[in-house]
Inverse folding.
């Protein structure tokens, strides 16, 4: 089923039933749909069903590519309207298996591991998994580890809400009264992505989408990927050529607006944004080679979270515009992180004439260690 058709049916069903079933944005759902179609994923798993909107979109993609099944797990069965009713209204009921496990999805995963494991060998059974459930450290760190075992080589795992912590809840004092200060302040899914999945030897291709709210990774093996699900990678990459400029070099003698101040720290630079809409230009290396990606090695010092945006000038463009820009959410951390912005994709790298960094929307402090330019 085409995405638009499935989406329209869900929105109509939502309006007819006066509920809020479709939690993800249309763009997000479309991205998941496209990914399943493009990778021809057949056996898909969702951990955290809610009302089943994403499960329906996954099912639409499976129907479009031919065959497969979405298994979606939740500890709560929604009624009177839930995933079964929504899937039926969209016409995709036969592609969805909804599981209610009141002990939670890790117990479902235990059952799957039991079925798939013989001796020391686990025969993996999923091509794609979307983890969008508890958003707490214990259930989700365990779920991520278990799911990696169950993913087939080349299968993808997607995590939602890398930035979320319980204090984002408007009524967190009541809703999460039982949590400790550490739990309240921990962006647990982000920690799972950074500290459990990124160092995992069975995973590669760590990609961010939705301005850094969603994190993807791929189980090693399988055919080489032909497309990536987002344009920002949460790692450095290896290019056919590359050139690295230290932070102090890439910001020397460049323009910046009055809301930005710079302070060198050895070879790095501390960028302080002191007001709204801060920006600064970065030096682009003098090269006639096309530049397809830019990797930043940086650390957000404050605040806890900020969205940086990178603008570039290529081709005939005379000014920086949103069309040639990428945004990515940064989380404060004690160690530098590497973020690769894919400017031109892999096919048509273009010569870059200018680069502008908006370190945040507002006040922030960022340590920029280096910028690497390159192409595949
Ligand atoms: C954000 S909602 C899921 C939204 C859904 N993926 C979608 O895109 O429409 C999170 C769901 O996870 C479920 N959940 C939370 N912790 C869980 C656990 N440990 N096991 C199973 N389900 C859980 C909640 O009941 C809730 O329905």
């Amino acid at each position: 089923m085409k995405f638009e058709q499935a989406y329209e049916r869900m929105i109509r069903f939502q309006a007819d039933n006066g509920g809020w079933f479709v939690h993800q944005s249309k763009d997000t759902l479309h991205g998941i749909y496209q990914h399943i179609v493009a990778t021809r994923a057949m056996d898909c798993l969702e951990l955290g069903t809610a009302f089943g909107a994403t499960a329906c979109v996954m099912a639409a993609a499976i129907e479009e590519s031919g065959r497969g099944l979405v298994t979606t797990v939740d500890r709560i069965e929604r009624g009177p309207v839930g995933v079964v009713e929504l899937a039926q209204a969209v016409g995709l009921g036969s592609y969805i298996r909804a599981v209610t496990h009141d002990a939670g999805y890790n117990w479902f995963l235990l059952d799957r591991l039991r079925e798939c494991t013989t001796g020391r060998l686990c025969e993996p059974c999923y091509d794609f998994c979307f983890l969008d459930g508890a958003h707490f450290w214990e259930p989700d760190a365990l779920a991520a580890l278990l799911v990696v075992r169950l993913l087939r080589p080349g299968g993808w795992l997607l995590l939602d809400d890398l930035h979320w912590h319980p204090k984002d809840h408007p009524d967190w004092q009541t809703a999460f009264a039982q949590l400790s200060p550490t739990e309240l302040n921990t962006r647990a899914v982000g920690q799972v992505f950074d500290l459990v999945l990124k160092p995992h030897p069975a995973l590669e291709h760590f990609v961010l989408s939705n301005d850094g709210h969603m994190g993807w990774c791929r189980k090693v093996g399988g055919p080489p990927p032909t497309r990536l699900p987002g344009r920002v990678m949460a790692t450095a990459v290896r290019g056919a050529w590359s050139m690295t400029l230290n932070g102090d070099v890439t910001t020397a003698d460049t323009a910046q607006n009055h809301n930005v101040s710079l302070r060198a720290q050895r070879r790095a630079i501390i960028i302080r944004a002191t007001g709204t809409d801060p920006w600064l230009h970065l030096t682009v290396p003098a090269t006639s080679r096309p530049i397809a990606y830019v990797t930043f090695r940086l650390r957000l010092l404050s605040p806890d979270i900020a969205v940086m945006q990178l603008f570039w000038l290529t081709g005939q463009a005379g000014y920086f515009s949103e069309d040639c820009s990428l945004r990515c959410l940064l989380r404060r951390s004690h160690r530098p992180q590497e973020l690769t912005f894919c400017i031109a994709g892999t096919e048509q790298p273009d010569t870059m004439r200018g680069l502008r960094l908006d370190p945040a929307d507002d006040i922030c402090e960022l340590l920029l260690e280096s910028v690497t330019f390159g192409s595949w």
Remarks:
- The radius of gyration is 22 Å.
- The chain has ten helices and 20 strands.
